[in-house]
Structure formats: structure tokens, C-alpha cells
Amino acid sequence: MTVLIIGGSGFLGAELVRQATSAGRVTAATCNSRPGHAADVSWHRLDLRDPRRLGEVIDTVMPSVVINASSGAADWAVTADGPILLTQMTARRGIRLVHVSSDAVFSGTSRSLYDETALPDPVTPYGAAKAAAETAVRLLHPDAVVARTSLIIGDGHSAHEQVVHELAAGTRKGVLFTDDIRCPVHVADLAAALWELASSNAAGVFHLAGPDALSRYALGVLIARRDGIDPSQLPTGLRAKTRPIGALDVRLDSHATQGRLRTRLRGAREFLGTAR
Predict the structure, then answer these.
(1) Rounded to the nearest 5°, which phi and psi values hold at 234?
(2) Source organism's superkingdom (predicted)?
(3) In this structure, which of 56, 198, 235, 241 has its CB flanked by the most CB atoms within 10 Å?
(4) How far apart are CA 208 and CA 150, in angstroms?
């Protein structure tokens, strides 16, 4: 299996690269500026907004599987238009596609959990871009996987963990919201689940989030305790008082997907329960 990881120098992308090379897969990855540090990987500079360059990379690598782990935040051209181009090109070439999406496609106004059948109703520019990309993938590449996930945590290197350290040290302004609920997932679990889906014939929408629903503050407390930081140093606030508010309570229900996977998606209370 020759694999191409779009966004291979990012946090999730780097873990996908690590697991791919550990499994002996022929691995190529893209970066926007600087390549990653993994050995035995062919790196290709790519701006997803450039269709000519995207086609060149795909035709050079000739992958059997592409995982799109890129992140362009609220930049529509990167987060929506780029994945749409990627979907068109992989579909035409008969290449398997796994597209990583986000719980940001939901408004957080539902009184129930969001399972794989829930329809996107985004309330932020980022969520709207992610929802547009999802729609294109499902329409143009019916055999592809759309994998929605939540806050991605690692072993000290994720953006969320860095924010906790900076807030506690007073080197960053801001707060941790007590009313912003998500279902964090460990980056290693997420990457393993994505590879499991990529290696199967599964198609459609899948949810890859942890079973624990936590506020950003509660998550921060777990991170602080693991890392020997006094949780009382963490400032708190309400996202409902910010403008624009954005999605508040978004709990992905991953039970249906978990039932199809060998990979166990651990909850944050478990994977943050021990010191590093």
C-alpha cells in the first residue's frame, strides 16, 4: 500500500506518518512550508489551493490511499475548496480517500448526542467550510470515508495542552470555557482508527471521538494534574458571553463507529489519568 498523507507535518498528520512508516507502508506526505522529521518518507510541498500542484503530487506518488488531515481553519479556499479539488482528483483516478472532518460541522444546539446520521448545521465559518467539504466528498466520491473527530490531544504536544501550560504560567491571555463541551480523543487512537478505516472497504460517515464529554476547563484540569500544574492557576470563563458565540455543547456519539473498529477510542479521563 502506497499512502499519501495531506498535511503530514501537522499534529495529526505527523502521527499518521509515524504509524504508517512503523507498519512498513510506502509513505508520502505533504507540507505547506517545512517537511516533517520522519525518515523514509517522501515529502512534497503543497498548497491545496493550487490544482496544478495537487495533480502533480498525486501523479508523482501514485498512492492507493490518500488521507486528508490538512487544516486551514476558517480559510474557505484551504478548508473547503482544497478538499473538493482533492476529492475530484482521487475519484477520477480511483484512489481511496479518507477525509478528516470535525465536530465543528454541528451547532451544539441539539439536546441529544450527534451520531453519524446527524445533519450538519454549522454556526462558524470553519464549521461551514468543513461541512461543504464533507458534502463534496460524499457526493463526488461515494466510496470515500468522512471521519469526524473532536479535540485532539497528545502526550504534551497538542495545541490544547500548550494552551493549558501557557495560561497557568501567565504567558497567555484568555480563559478555559466551562460551557464549551467536546469529546476529546488521543491522537494515537485517532490515527490508528483512521488507518483501520483506510485499509477497509468502509464508506460513508464515521465518528472518531472519545467517550468522555468534557468542558474545555475540565479537560484543562486533567492536563494540569497530569503535568503537575496547580489547576487553580487556570482562568475560567463562559463562551456564551463571547461574540460570536459559536457552538457550545457538541458531543459526538461514536458508538456505531466504535462497534466496527478494533481500535479502542479511549476517553480523556483514561489517557490523561497518569503522569507523563
Answers:
(1) -90, 120
(2) Bacteria
(3) 198
(4) 8
Which residue is associated with the grid cell 474557505? 76
Prediction pTM value: 0.96
The whole-angstrom separation of Cα 256 and Cα 253 is 8
According to CATH, what is the number of the domain 2-152+186-208? 3.40.50.720
Closest CA to 5 of 34, 23, 22, 26: 26
